Amino acid sequence: MRALDLTFEKTDQIIGLLKAGKVGVMPTDTIYGIVGSALNPEIVEGIYTLRKREKDKPFIILVSSIEDLKNFDVSLTKEQRNFLENNWPNPLSIILSVRSDRFQFLHRGKNSLAFRMPENRWLLDILRRVGPLVAPSANPAGVKPAETVEEAKKYFGDQPSFYIDGGKLKSKPSTIVQLLEDGTKIVLREGSFKV
């Protein structure tokens, strides 16, 4: 089936597609991402296949609030919660322990997941209404991330259900920080956000 070209104004249609288990390419708070429900194992596997990504590398998960972390059996310590309350929303991805085997399809045996609460209002609205989304960059593994919808279409053709054109997007990726239970912060990738 041919991929749909949608605009930001088609929010209800986008939400309907994502709730129906579809995958799309759209702007995130940093660059274009391939997005789909983070709580649906089949969708997550489909995105791995689409991106030809190594199966042991977890995706970053976009959330609309700190409370969304409960969906993943994450229990925050006081230190972790304080850090998130002071630093989210931002282009800051936080790695937290996830001990539950239920989320093996997401953590790929790493027993931890990376979460980000984006600063973009439109995207937060979608996340509030659809739930957490995986949103890896829109490119096959080993190729540069798509900066335009045209580039993403060259990569993926009609495999995604929809594309949303947000113009040319080029920015530093998010900063990735591992946040230990005692509040210790380990910067794993220095991105656009200074910790």
Automatic annotation (TrEMBL):
First-listed, main subcellular location of the protein, grouped into a coarse class: cytoplasm
Q: Which residues form the YrdC-like domain?
A: 8-193
Task: Please state the span of the N-terminal signal peptide per the UniProt entry.
Answer: none
Q: Does the keyword Transport apply?
A: no
Q: What organism is the protein native to?
A: Candidatus Daviesbacteria bacterium RIFCSPHIGHO2_01_FULL_40_11
Q: Which InterPro entries match?
A: DHBP_synth_RibB-like_a/b_dom, Sua5-like_dom, TC-AMP_synthase_SUA5
**Which reaction is catalysed here?**
L-threonine + hydrogencarbonate + ATP = L-threonylcarbamoyladenylate + diphosphate + H2O
Q: What's the family?
A: Belongs to the SUA5 family.
Family matches, as PANTHER family = SUA5, THREONYLCARBAMOYL-AMP SYNTHASE
Q: What name is this protein filed under? A: L-threonylcarbamoyladenylate synthase
Q: What is its EC number?
A: 2.7.7.87
Q: Does the keyword Transit peptide apply?
A: no
Cellular location(s) = Cytoplasm
State the taxonomy lineage: Bacteria, Candidatus Daviesiibacteriota
Q: Which GO terms describe its biological process?
A: regulation of translational fidelity; tRNA processing
Q: Name one Pfam family in it.
A: Sua5_yciO_yrdC
Which superkingdom? Answer: Bacteria
In its UniProt record, a GO molecular function of this protein is: tRNA binding
